[in-house]
Every structure is written in C-alpha cells, then in structure tokens.
C-alpha cells in the first residue's frame, strides 16, 4: 500500500540536505512507494533560530574550533536534556504544524533536530508514523538518540556495535552507510568528462574542494600545489564564495595549464570519477562520496568533533592521509603521486569501505518497517547515560540498572526498553522470558509518582489492547 513519506533535514551546511535528497531520489525510484516530500526544517523557523543553528556554528568553527570540539564531546552522552531543547520546541511550532498537515506514515530524519521533534510528536500521540534516523557521519553522537524510534541507520559496523552496547536493541540498528547520490561507483565516460572541463586526457587530476561555503584555507593549498613537482592538473572547486573564486583564479593564472577553477557546481560526481586524489575537509557527505567513488582523500583542517572522528575512521581504514601541518599539503600530494603502489592501495581501500547504495538501502528498509516505534523509558535512558559516562556497556551496570527489552511474543521484534528494576514492579524476575501486561495493572501504577514512567510505556506497548503477553530479553 502506498505511504505518505516525509524526509526531514536541517540546512546546517549542505550534508544533511544532500543525504535527504539522495534518499528522496531512491524512494521515488521504488514503484508504488507513495507520496514523498522533503523538507529542510530550518526553512520553517525564524531568522534568529536559523542564525544560531547555522551561521553561529560556522562562526565558531572559524574562530574558536576548540570550543566546537568541547561542545561536541559534552553532548556525546545519549538522551541529554536541557533548556536548549525547550527553546527548539518553542521555535519550531510552524515545523510541527507542517508535519501534522502532511500526516506522514513514514518519517526519515537526516538531522537530530527534526528527529527530536518527531519523536516527541509520536510520544504525545500527535503522529502515528515510523521514525527512521539516518546518521550523516562515520561516528554517532549521543544527541542523535531520540525515542520513540523505529530504526537507526549508521555508517559502519563499529558505530552499530556502539549503539547496541549503549542499550539499543540490535534489531533497531542497521548499517547502511551514509546516503549519497546513487551511481557514484559507476565509471562514467572519463574522456568526455575531461573534455567538458578542458582537462588534459593524459595527466592525473587532483580535486581540491573548498566545500559548499568556500573555505579560505584553499588559497594556501593552491599556492602549494602550484609548486608541486609532479605532473598533474588540479580542479579547484570554490563553492559559493565569490571572493575566494577571484583569489584562486588570480593565483591559477600564474601557473598556466595546472589549474581549472570552478565556483559552486552540481558536477562533483563526475569530477570525482576522473580524479586520483581529493583534497579537502572530511565532512560526512564529502567523505562518503569519495569512498563511494573509490577516491582517496588528503584530509585538511578537520573540525574538532565529528570531522576529526571521520578522519580517524578513514585513516584507520587506509583510505586517506592527513595533513597535520598547513605547510605540507603540496608535499603530501607529490609523495602520493610519486608512489603509484601506495596510491593504488589507498584507492582500493576507499572503494572497499564505500557504500554507494546507502540511500537505496535506507529507503527500502524503511518502507518495509511494520512494527511500532521503539519506546525507551526515562529510567532506561538515564541508565544509558550513566553507562556512557562511566565508560561501560549497559550490561555491566548494577543489576537493577541493567536494561531489559520487551518484544512481540510472535515476531520477536523489540517494542520497549525498561530497567530491570522497573519490570520487577510488574512481576518480572531476572529469569523471566515472558511478561503479561494489562491496562488494569497500568491504572494501579498511576497512583505512585515513581511508576508513571513505567505506566506510560506499558500503555504504549499495549496499543489499546486490554492485556497482552510479551517476550522479554
């Protein structure tokens, strides 16, 4: 049956929207998928809110990157709540109204802000939909975790293991990769692409990216590339920064035949297909696109937090090198181009870790979801927080704080996560493998403040039924 599908992103940088667009394209390609809409939630909020979420963030990246890293690490524990989330809710009333007007059956979020909003709507009974979270970096940050949730798509197996160790049931975590434009792994017509961009058909291409906004560090890279000894040509993509485009064009004119300078372009996939190296920052989408295309990276200026963690992964997998010194970018490029065996190894590793079909995976699996979203009680969320802050897996917490998962007795699908102490209240002991719940019992729990969390979760999993027997693991 056709469904109403809503894909939500937030335009902080370009990556979240790019991932959403890739999933949208994959979803539209599925026969009879239904009506698909995509929304950048920041287009529905006021200028002040947008300033904080987008402009302020990039100002901090430019001026005090260490503070961005500190903030990232400080928000790494799952299910943290603070005054900022209340401010989010106050400034996203129009967003919520638009979601309710569309009344989706399926919601896919490629940013934690819409994920939190939709999870709250489901918890309050304002929306009856599945909620899929799609991470857009190689490492997951705790603020992404929202409940209820249907499934969480992550970029790699280790991240999935981290979430399961944190307490999420394994059937609610899927490894898809980061969604990128489909077809990046296809070779294309290299000769035609080179001709279109006025490139020498015989020389290797180094692709230098300043990002969508156009990073000023690109000028330093261009100066060094001009002095490289290897015989290659460089395509410099300056993004939407017109001043940078003018500066780089002037510098490039001093080295005839070495550079091709572009502003913002939609043709990055073709440029990746013909390149031997990518020089740029390890944003989640840029990195995933390079890996999907089998294009090794020379990493520069990673933002503390997610980009540093992306870089760690790519280095660990042997698909990139990192320039820790701003003065050695040219040296790194020369060294790699002078060593074909090393470059071939990096290329093979990039292709090995690439997931060019991530968007299709996310779309197809999401459409197949039938179980209700997973409920995680507040007590269980607090146990997850404690485990994370103590640096242990939830299974190593004290017995009363350990987590137990209620499942559908027939399918085995996880339905809710409780603490062991909560379930003792309704008769579960450590060896219990089934549990019977009823609305009658839930009503008796309402009389004690400490049991309201349990009662709310119990009513949710009962789903209107008077009583039911569940599996328990």
CATH superfamily of the largest domain: Glycogen Phosphorylase B
- As a percent range, the share of strand residues is 15-25%
Q: Report the sheet with the most strands, covering strand number, pairing sense and barrel closure.
A: 6 strands, parallel
Q: Which structural class should the secondary elements be placed in?
A: alpha/beta
Q: Quick check: average pLDDT?
A: 91
Helix content: 40-55%
Provide the CATH top-level class of the largest domain.
Alpha Beta
CA gyration radius, whole angstroms? 24 Å
CATH topology of the largest domain: Rossmann fold
Distance between the termini: 33 Å
Total count of domains: 3
Describe the structure.
There is one protein chain. The longest helix is centred in the N-terminal third of the chain and has 17 residues, at about 45-65. Helix 1 (about 15-30) packs across helix 16, helix 2 (about 45-65) crosses helix 3 (about 65-75) and helix 9 crosses helix 14 (about 330-335). This protein starts with a strand and ends with a strand. It is elongated, with a radius of gyration of 24 Å. Helix content is about 45%, strand content about 15%. The strands form 3 sheets. The protein has a 6-stranded parallel sheet with strand order 2-1-3-4-5-6, with helices on both faces. The chain has helices at about 15-30, 45-65, 65-75, 85-90, 95-100, 110-125, 155-165, 190-195, 220-225, 240-250, 270-275, 285-290, 305-315, 330-335, 340-355, 360-365, 380-390, 420-425, 440-445, 450-460; strands at about 5-10, 35-40, 105-110, 130-135, 150-155, 175, 205-210, 235, 260, 275-280, 295-300, 320, 375, 405-410, 415-420, 435-440, 465-470. It has about 475 residues and is of the alpha/beta class. The protein contains 20 helices and 17 strands. The protein has 3 domains: about 5-180 and about 360-370, Glycogen Phosphorylase B (Rossmann fold), CATH 3.40.50.2000; about 190-355, Glycogen Phosphorylase B (Rossmann fold, 3-Layer(aba) Sandwich), CATH 3.40.50.2000; about 385-470, no CATH class. Helix 9 links the parallel strand 7 and strand 8 (about 235).
